[in-house]
Amino acid sequence: xxxxxxxxxxxxxxxxxxxxxxxxxxxxxxxxxxxxxxxxxxxxxxxxxxxxxxxxxxxxxxxxxxxxxxxxxxxxxxxxxxxxxxxxxxxxxxxxxxxxxxxxxxxxxxxxxxxxxxxxxxxxxxxxxxxxxxxxxxxxxxxxxxxxxxxxxxxxxxxxxxxxxxxxxxxxxxxxxxxxxxxxxxxxxxxxxxxxxxxxxxxxxxxxxxxxxxxxxxxxxxxxxxxxxxxxxxxxxxxxxxxxxxxxxxxxxxxxxxxxxxxxxxxxxxxxxxxxxxxxxxxxxxxxxxxxxxxxxxxxxxxxxxxxxxx
Length: 311
Prior knowledge:
311 residues; alpha+beta; Tetrahydropterin Synthase, Chain A; 4 domains; three-stranded antiparallel sheet; 8 helices; 20% strand; Band_7/SPFH_dom_sf; Stomatin_HflK_fam; membrane; Band 7 domain-containing protein; Membrane_HflK_N
C-alpha cells in the first residue's frame, strides 16, 4: 500500500511532496523585515530602513572591536594575518575581522617539569627530574617566531640538561653537585631559548630529584651507607683529636710550670748553701781551730740527736 495512493502529492501528514518553495520563503523574510522597519506594501526595504540597519550593524561592529588589556598583559595585533603592533595595558580598539588580537600575560611565572634518563661523564645513568620556571618577555616572538613555544622549551630543557649531566660525574649529580648543575642548566637553557627566538625568560631552575635507575638502586644505597659511615668515623676521630690535643697541651704546660718551680727552688737552696759556706769561711779564717772544733761538735750533735740511745 502506498502512502501517497489517495493523497495526490501529499504525504500522510498532509505536506506536499517535493522540494520547498524558495521564492515563497524569501517573500516571507522580506515581509517580516518590512514589518520590522515600517515599510508599506511588503515590497522590500526603503532607503531609510537600509540606513537604519546599516547603522546598527556598524555600531555592533565597532563595539565588538573594543577590548581591555590588563596591567599584566600585552596584546599582539595581527592585521590580515600579518603582525601589526603590540599594545600595552589599557582600553583599545581594533577593527574586527580585519584585525585579530591575542592577549599574553607577561608577568605570570609559568612552571615546566621535565624527567629523563641521562648519561653522566663517568658513563653511568641517572634519572633526573628538573623544574623550570619561566616568563614570557616578548609576546610577539612567543606567538609568531616559532610554532609551539612550549614544545621548544621542553626540547631545549632536555638538550641543556643532557649537556650539563654529560659533563658531570655520577656522585656530583646525585649528591653535592645539584646546585651547580641547576645553575649551569639555567644558563645554557637561556642560550638555547634566545637562539630559537622563543620570547621566553628562564626565572629559576631546580633539580627536584636525581637518582640511579631502579636496577642499581640497592647497590647505590650500599655505597651511600658506606660513605656515611666513613664520614661518621672521620668526625668521631676529629672530635677525639680535638679533645686530646688541648688536654696534652694542658698537661705539657703543667709540667713546664712544675719544672720552672723546681728550678727556682734548687737555685734558691744552692744560693742559701753558698751564702752559709761563705760565712763559715770568714769565721774559719779568723779562728781556724775554734771554728773546726765547733763544726765537729755540731756534726756530732746532729748525728747523736738522730740516733737511738740504749742505756
